[in-house]
Every structure is written in structure tokens, then in C-alpha cells.
Amino acid sequence: MMTSLDMRGFSISLYPADKADLDALGQPVALAAWPGLAAVRPVAVAALPDGLTPITPLPSDHKETREFLINCCHVMIAAEQDLNALDAKSGDGDTGSTLAGAARALIKAMDRLPLSDHTQLYRAIGLELSQTMGGSSGVLLAIFFAAAGDGASSGLPMRDALKAGLARMQEIGGAQVGDRTMVDALAPALDALGESIGAAATAARAGANMTAKLLRAKAGRAAYINAKQLEGHVDPGAEAVARLFEHLAG
Fold first, then answer.
1. What is the value of pTM for the model shown?
2. In a designed cystine with 181, which of 54, 130, 175, 217 is the match (CB 3.0 to 4.6 A)?
């Protein structure tokens, strides 16, 4: 099994050791780096201190918002295999599965969301993603929606709230336009959103297509891939953003 947050990762190896193996592994050695053996014991789960427990907003219904979110989720689910294939060129091959899994979880959580309060809805989506979406993309998108919710609660209109979410995500993640990430499609899309959703979709597609010409990534697993493997392949995160905006414009 392998997992990671910053793409350095760690691995866990399983071995069916018998008693003789365990006795040998438990012998003292001179190497300081050898950790020795430790018994696996049940883990005690402690409650978060007061003030750190996430505040769950009251659920509410809004037919149009529900349909909008479910349709967006279906776009990510439908794109699963295509995005995995793109990610296989420059990453772990699981971007599509990660986004589709988050979309399915969000659909299941629909009855728990404050659909009639968009300010709280941004935050609720961020909280849901932080608990159901894996990898660095899950963390960063959770930050994006949480910051967008903060912006909306301070009175910002939707576009400006989303741009505040993007700014916070970039501040934490470090990605800029040209680094071959979803930011390459999301930033120009939000810039163009003030004009129209069609303009935003066009900008997102242009930004995504541009990533196929970038021969060096500065973030994510693609940062470790050589130029020949990146050339001609759109970044899967940027492609996901472009497909979502194209759906909204359609």
C-alpha cells in the first residue's frame, strides 16, 4: 500500500512472518536505524478538544441547487476513466477515481448539506471533501471551498468568493498558472466568469490545453516526470476543470 500528501509518500510492506522470523527480527543489532519490533495494539481514539470539532451546518433543501450539484458530480463520474488515462501519463493514474469517488460521496451526502444557504454550502462541501477525498487534491479542494465559504460569508459575490478560495488554495499549495495543475484551467475560468459562463468555459479549455505544451511540472507527481512523458498530454486536474465548465456552459 502506498499513500501520500506531498507526493513523497511512504510505503507499508506486509510479510507473513512465523515465530522463527519474529525471533530473528527481534534480536538486538548495532544499527541505530533499525527500529526493532513493536506489538500492534488497539488504537485509542480521543475526541477533539472544544473549539476544534467541525461545526456541521443544518441541512436544508433547494431543488435547483441539488440538481446543479448532482449534475456536476455526474460530470466527474463520467470522466473517471478518461482522467485516469491522462493521469497514467504523468502520475499515479488515479485522478479520475479520486474525483469520481468524491463526487459519489457528495451525492450520498446531499441530504446533509445546507442547500438553501450557499455561504454555508461552500464550507459544507469543503468539510465533506476533507473527509472523503484522498490525496493532495482532496486537501487543496477542501481548502478552496472552505475559503470560498469564508469569502461568501463576508459579503463577496460568488465569483469573488471563488477567487478568494483559489487564492487561499494557491497560498497553501504553491501552484501558479504555468505549473501544470488544475490552476491552469481554474484561474482563467474564474477571471472570465464575470463576462459569462461560456467565456469561462472557453478560458478553462484553453488553459487545460496549454498544459499539454508545458514540459515541466512544478507540483504533484508530474514534477518527477521527464519532459518527453509530459509533452502532448493535458494535465488531468486541468482537464477535469475544463470539462466541468464546459458542462455548465452547455
1. 0.77
2. 175
